[in-house]
């Protein structure tokens, strides 16, 4: 008879993919997962999400005693066998570790690849990580690159990326020939995403039949509008709710993500599930995991000329759009990024920690 696992998931805010993860886990009779989110939302993430109060609690945390007491009561009432902590710098993580230790609860950290700091900041960060991870039973690393980095801190590291349900994306039908390629960017309009350089690179291409759709909101919104000017090939849509996003993906052919750095980037998996090739930097965890240069996408540097080369690759090879998109959809269907696959994989991991 299989053991039922009670899991407490501590994280910052509810996100669409985390809610998919929690829902899929709780469908499995082997699990009971409850999530404790520190905040209901944060800047540039204006999701309107339906949460199930049976499984999810969202606080509005501040460093006051009553918020620590709230978590203590939540932990005590639930009596988890495992606690899954989504970030080593997360407020309440120290309290969570303490409560887990005195109650015999297994401690698991779920971590993206560390931010690429330099010099003294990197030394301090690594010392903090080394100390914090002394107390854990296991690390779930979000991607291969993250798993490789965390192996120096722990002998128990598994690759478990963010997962979600892709049914709407799998249902998107694709044309076998794409003569007038339509590009899509979706994400926060912030410096780290390198979006202004992408738009400048796109504008250098003198092809009136191509298009670029930009989805998202953020501090660079006004600057982006100025850069676009009168180029009617570029459309700025603003923020789109997650349940409607697949419709935007269905109207574009190739996904572009020029990030200077992204620990994972769930949007890459969404685009792959939608049957799209990926044009991106290798500084994104999901791209490093899944994309091979000129086999199912195009990898470039973060500068304007290199990004332009990536766009031109699919403009000059439109027949590869469908071929590479089909490869990407198959990769996602067979990976742990699909929430159904993830639930089984997680159960196997927890079974090894008994």
Helix content: 25-40%
| CATH architecture level-2 label of the largest domain | 3-Layer(aba) Sandwich
Q: Which structural class should the secondary elements be placed in?
A: alpha/beta
CATH homology group of the largest domain: Glycogen Phosphorylase B
Rounded to the nearest angstrom, the radius of gyration is 21 Å
CATH class call of the largest domain: Alpha Beta
CATH topology of the largest domain: Rossmann fold
What spatial form do the alpha-carbon principal axes imply?
globular
For the record, give the distance between the C-alpha atoms at the N and C termini, rounded to a whole number.
Answer: 14 Å
Number of strands: 13
- Proportion in β-strands: 15-25%
**Secondary-structure element string:** EHEEHEHEHEHEHEHEHEHEHEHEHHH
- Main beta sheet: strand number and arrangement? 7 strands, parallel
Count of DSSP H/I helices = 14
Describe this protein's structure:
By secondary structure, this protein is α/β, with parallel strands linked by helices. The chain folds into 2 domains: 5-163 and 338-352, Glycogen Phosphorylase B (Rossmann fold), CATH 3.40.50; 167-333, Rossmann fold. Helices cover 40% and strands 17% of the residues. It has a 7-stranded parallel beta sheet, with helices on both faces. Helix 10 links the parallel strand 11 and strand 12. The longest helix is centred in the C-terminal third of the chain and has 15 residues, at 319-333. The relative contact order is 0.13.
């Amino acid at each position: 008879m299989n053991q039922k696992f009670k899991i407490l998931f501590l994280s910052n805010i509810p996100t669409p993919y985390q809610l998919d993860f929690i829902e899929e886990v709780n469908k499995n009779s082997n699990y009971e997962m409850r999530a404790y989110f520190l905040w209901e939302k944060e800047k540039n993430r204006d999701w309107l999400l339906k949460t199930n109060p049976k499984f999810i609690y969202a606080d509005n945390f501040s460093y006051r005693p009553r918020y620590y007491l709230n978590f203590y009561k939540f932990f005590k009432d639930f009596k988890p066998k495992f606690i899954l902590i989504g970030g080593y710098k997360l407020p309440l993580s120290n309290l969570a570790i303490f409560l887990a230790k005195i109650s015999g609860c297994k401690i698991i950290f779920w971590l993206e690849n560390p931010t690429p700091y330099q010099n003294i900041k990197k030394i301090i960060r690594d010392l903090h990580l080394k100390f914090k991870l002394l107390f854990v039973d296991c690390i779930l690393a979000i991607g291969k690159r993250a798993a490789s980095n965390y192996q120096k801190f722990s002998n128990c590291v598994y690759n478990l990326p963010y997962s979600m349900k892709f049914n709407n994306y799998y249902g998107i039908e694709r044309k076998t020939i794409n003569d007038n390629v339509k590009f899509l960017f979706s994400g926060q309009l912030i410096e780290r995403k390198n979006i202004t350089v992408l738009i400048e690179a796109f504008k250098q291409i003198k092809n009136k039949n191509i298009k670029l759709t930009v989805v998202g909101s953020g501090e660079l919104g006004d600057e982006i509008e100025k850069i676009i000017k009168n180029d009617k090939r570029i459309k700025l849509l603003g923020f789109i709710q997650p349940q409607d996003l697949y419709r935007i993906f269905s109207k574009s052919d190739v996904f572009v993500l020029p990030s200077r750095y992204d620990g994972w980037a769930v949007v890459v998996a969404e685009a792959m599930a939608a049957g799209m090739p990926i044009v991106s930097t290798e500084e994104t965890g999901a791209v490093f995991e899944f994309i091979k240069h000129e086999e199912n996408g195009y990898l470039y540097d973060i500068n304007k000329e290199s990004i332009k080369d990536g766009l031109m690759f699919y403009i000059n090879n439109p027949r590869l759009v469908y071929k590479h998109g089909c490869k990407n959809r198959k990769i996602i269907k067979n990976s742990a990024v699909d929430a159904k696959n993830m639930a089984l994989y997680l159960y196997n991991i927890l079974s090894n920690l008994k």
